[in-house]
Amino acid sequence: AQEKKIFMVQGPYPIIRRLLQARGWVERKAPHTGRQQEQHCGDQNKQRLQTKPSHGSARQREEEDQCDEDPHGIHDLMSYLARDQLPNFIWTNFLEAVDRQLMQDNSVLNHYARVDAFTTKEGLCLSLQNLPWIEQADPNTFFPRCYRLGTRDDREAFIEDFRLTAARSLLKLALEEAGDRPVRTEQVPDSAKGEGESHISHPKHSTAQPGSPLYPELVEEALEVCKQHLGVLQHEDIDRNTPSPCRTCIDWDNFLQQYYRVAHEGAGLMLTRQQRKQCQNLLQSLAEKLPQLDMEGKLNVWILKPGAESQGRGIICMTRLEEMLQLAWSCTAPSVQVGRWVVQKYVERMLTIFGTKFDIRQWFVVTDWKPLTVWFYQDCYLRFCSRPFSLHHLERARHLCNVSVQKWYKTSPDQDPRVPPDKIWSNKQFQEYLAQVGQEDAWHKVLVPGMKVAILNALRSAQDRVHFRKGNFELYGADFVVGEDLQPWLLEINSCPTMSPSSAVTRQLCANVQRDTLCLVIDRKDNPTCSIGAFELIYKE
Q1: Is residue 192 assigned to a domain?
Q2: Rounded to an integer, what distance in angstroms lies between the CA atom of residue 228 and that of residue 248?
Q3: What contacts 234, CB < 8 A, 6 or more positions away?
Q4: Which of 49, 128, 443, 485 has its Cβ near the most Cβ atoms within 10 Å?
Q5: Alpha carbons 153 and 149: distance in angstroms, whole number
């Protein structure tokens, strides 16, 4: 048995087991850790434990049984003989499942330690905040603004960001409204004045009902805040001590209440000709300094996420600052930091397909951290929501693409019938769609290069915090949404991406990526010219 290659598999990976056995490897059976082992995994679908029965899961079980078939009991016999051998290769769904006593110096394991620096929402948020100190790269060009609500500095920065975004959004809403009808002159019509008033009332004294117009002072306040912010942005390289535009003498509570009425309750806005020009010029100048000005939209939607959860657990879209802060506090025991929550700007201006939100699951493998060596998988898949996209309805079925979330929802009757019933597309299907809408080159020229840049920047930002062991490797799944301009925006990176197929597309792709990963990390060692399937080396330090 000494010459034999011994492997161990922990978790739902029948394909890995079958491919290794086909290479003549012998399995040492893993100690059974049961349900607890499943609980820890970063992104596993946990299909057998949690999924409600479906045709897919029955078929999948049948396939897994076939994968594990051992008609003559040969594999079982070999495993019995190898029961005392230390494995050379271990594939597990989480690092903590591995008994260190089973590890040899030359054992290959499919995980690194301390990868939570980029595979948890909190970790990625912190790492990318530090990116500009490590690389000449701006995370705002590929990662929606993100804050950890448990740290005071981040919480204050978020409150300031929310207020500034509200001010910019108000200018956008005012321009949009002015575009729908003739611009008002300086004179405020009588109908807009309060009962018996001969002057313009200030918004804070306005008792107007939802749907009735607010006064130009609200736009004036927004213009003033945005002007000051632009001044800060233009001088931030010279003087770090410029006072924050949010500390100016403006009643922010009142401003936000009025903004909510305009953005969410249908209150109208009046705009003078002069204000209209000012709004246009200011937004244009801000766009040169703020890479997310376009994608952030005008409704100030943010997404609140528990910092270390996966599979969409606990994630909620919100639009009101006080409600977000309250939720983050109320969901936390006194002994636990609020920092378990992160809040991230929602990409409001995103590309939808047939009126439906989707995201992209993109795989990549790291085979070394020093030098950092990264392989990008050239196939990926799209995950659709089960209800049409709307920023006026923020329920999970419309906004969270995770398979583990969407499996609980039936497709709604108002969903476009062209959305695939299993809510999954391959990247090939997406490329065909892009060609149909006149964006044939977008995949290779914009989307793929953008995803590669985002992944590499995320890895570099966390590189010094990862504990790596030579010879190990890890397969990750990055999730992206796509902006209206076809730019990809990184949302998160999952260690242990699910390999439990939920569709015909993922059944094929998950099998392929497992096969190609083994070629990359095992076969290539003996034969550097062997095929590595759809993997492409995109970075070696």
Answers
A1: no
A2: 9
A3: 289
A4: 128
A5: 9
Q: Which tokens sit at 495?
A: 């260690």
Q: Do 456 and 539 contact (CB within 8 A), yes or no?
A: yes
My answer on whether 240 and 138 are in the same domain is no
Strand partners of residue 146: 344
Q: Is the dihedral of CA 447, 453, 459, 462 positive or negative?
A: negative
For residues 432 and 316, state if they share a domain.
no
Residue by residue, DSSP assigns 388-403 as: ---SS---HHHH---H
Which are the contacts of 361, defined by CB distance < 8 A and separation ≥ 6? 380, 381, 382, 383, 477, 478, 479, 497
Task: Evaluate whether 210 touches 261 at the Cβ level (below 8 Å).
Answer: yes
Domain range enclosing 287: 145-180+212-346
Question: pLDDT for 142-182, tens place per residue?
Answer: 999 999 988 889 999 999 999 999 999 999 999 988 775 54
Q: Are residues 89 and 124 in the same domain?
A: no
Domain end, chosen from 328, 346, 364, is at 346
Contact between 40 and 94 (Cβ < 8 Å): yes
What does the pLDDT look like over 226-239, one tens digit per residue? 999 999 999 865 55
Residue where a domain stops, chosen among 346, 371, 391 = 346
The pair of three-digit structure tokens given for residue 497, joined into one six-digit string: 């991406």
User: pTM of the full predicted structure?
Assistant: 0.85
Buried b (16+ CB within 10 A) or exposed e, 302-326: bbbbbbeebbbeebbbbbebeebbe
pLDDT band at 327 (very low <50, low <70, confident <90, very high): confident
